[in-house]
Amino acid sequence: MKITIIGAGNMGLAMANGLKLSGFEVSFAGRLSDRLEALKGEFEVEIIDQNYDISDKNIILAIKPNALEWFVNLAKGRANLIISVLARTSLEQIQAINAINHAICLPNIAAKYQKSINPYIAIGDTNLVEKILNGFGKAVKFDSKSTFDAASIISGCAPAYLALVAEAINTAAVRSGLRLDEAQAMTSGLFDSFAGLIKDTYPALIKDSICSPAGTTIEGVCELEKAGVRTAFIEAIRASLMKQRG
């Protein structure tokens, strides 16, 4: 199956790499840019400078939200599928593009490794949508814009929050005597380990199973609670969600 990605940003390239690993044929299209030109050695690239024929194509729209009107005005014909990964953009807005099937999704850049969690809402063939989304991660269907918005913050924004956590752990490890490369290796291994733990266990149970009475772990947990880490994460999710909902 051939997928055309409109836009050559970090998210578009991450999805392209994941889809290639899954055996999809991937091409790019967009406005002339150095970034798009640089992809010519690896992908088929088409420059959009006038009317763009979308007939029968499976398209992932990965441009900036403020460029949506530009694409709507240039798109001609009827696509088979439009999947938008634009933030703060509704399914109704995407339906301005003529297509048989429409979907909105907020993945993350782990798509490069086929590890993105991909919440979506769709009108039309959800099997087709999921086949593509599962090509660079795991598709999760939602039925309302409200729940989709909340899920999209977890998928699209929270990886940046976790990057701050990883950076802080690295810094603490260096402060404690590890070299930066040693700290990075330990932190990376920590996240791999935690991914296995949280797959089928609630976070509170993981914490309680590690914290022994008067032990070293509970001392650290109490310091994090004293610093308001839990509340900070809750408020970060809320702030991003309010921004997403406009």
UniProtKB/TrEMBL annotation:
<comment type="similarity">
    <text>Belongs to the pyrroline-5-carboxylate reductase family.</text>
</comment>
<protein>
    <recommendedName>
        <fullName>Pyrroline-5-carboxylate reductase</fullName>
        <ecNumber>1.5.1.2</ecNumber>
    </recommendedName>
</protein>
<keyword id="KW-0521">NADP</keyword>
<dbReference type="InterPro" id="IPR008927">
    <property type="entry name" value="6-PGluconate_DH-like_C_sf"/>
</dbReference>
<feature type="domain" description="Pyrroline-5-carboxylate reductase dimerisation">
    <location>
        <begin position="146"/>
        <end position="244"/>
    </location>
</feature>
<dbReference type="Pfam" id="PF14748">
    <property type="entry name" value="P5CR_dimer"/>
</dbReference>
<comment type="function">
    <text>Catalyzes the reduction of 1-pyrroline-5-carboxylate (PCA) to L-proline.</text>
</comment>
<dbReference type="InterPro" id="IPR029036">
    <property type="entry name" value="P5CR_dimer"/>
</dbReference>
<keyword id="KW-0560">Oxidoreductase</keyword>
<keyword id="KW-0028">Amino-acid biosynthesis</keyword>
<dbReference type="InterPro" id="IPR028939">
    <property type="entry name" value="P5C_Rdtase_cat_N"/>
</dbReference>
<dbReference type="InterPro" id="IPR000304">
    <property type="entry name" value="Pyrroline-COOH_reductase"/>
</dbReference>
<comment type="pathway">
    <text>Amino-acid biosynthesis; L-proline biosynthesis; L-proline from L-glutamate 5-semialdehyde: step 1/1.</text>
</comment>
<dbReference type="InterPro" id="IPR053790">
    <property type="entry name" value="P5CR-like_CS"/>
</dbReference>
<dbReference type="GO" id="GO:0004735">
    <property type="term" value="F:pyrroline-5-carboxylate reductase activity"/>
</dbReference>
<keyword id="KW-0963">Cytoplasm</keyword>
<dbReference type="InterPro" id="IPR036291">
    <property type="entry name" value="NAD(P)-bd_dom_sf"/>
</dbReference>
<feature type="binding site">
    <location>
        <begin position="62"/>
        <end position="65"/>
    </location>
    <ligand>
        <name>NADP(+)</name>
    </ligand>
</feature>
<dbReference type="GO" id="GO:0005737">
    <property type="term" value="C:cytoplasm"/>
</dbReference>
<dbReference type="Pfam" id="PF03807">
    <property type="entry name" value="F420_oxidored"/>
</dbReference>
<keyword id="KW-0641">Proline biosynthesis</keyword>
<feature type="binding site">
    <location>
        <begin position="6"/>
        <end position="11"/>
    </location>
    <ligand>
        <name>NADP(+)</name>
    </ligand>
</feature>
<feature type="binding site">
    <location>
        <position position="51"/>
    </location>
    <ligand>
        <name>NADPH</name>
    </ligand>
</feature>
<feature type="domain" description="Pyrroline-5-carboxylate reductase catalytic N-terminal">
    <location>
        <begin position="2"/>
        <end position="87"/>
    </location>
</feature>
<dbReference type="GO" id="GO:0055129">
    <property type="term" value="P:L-proline biosynthetic process"/>
</dbReference>
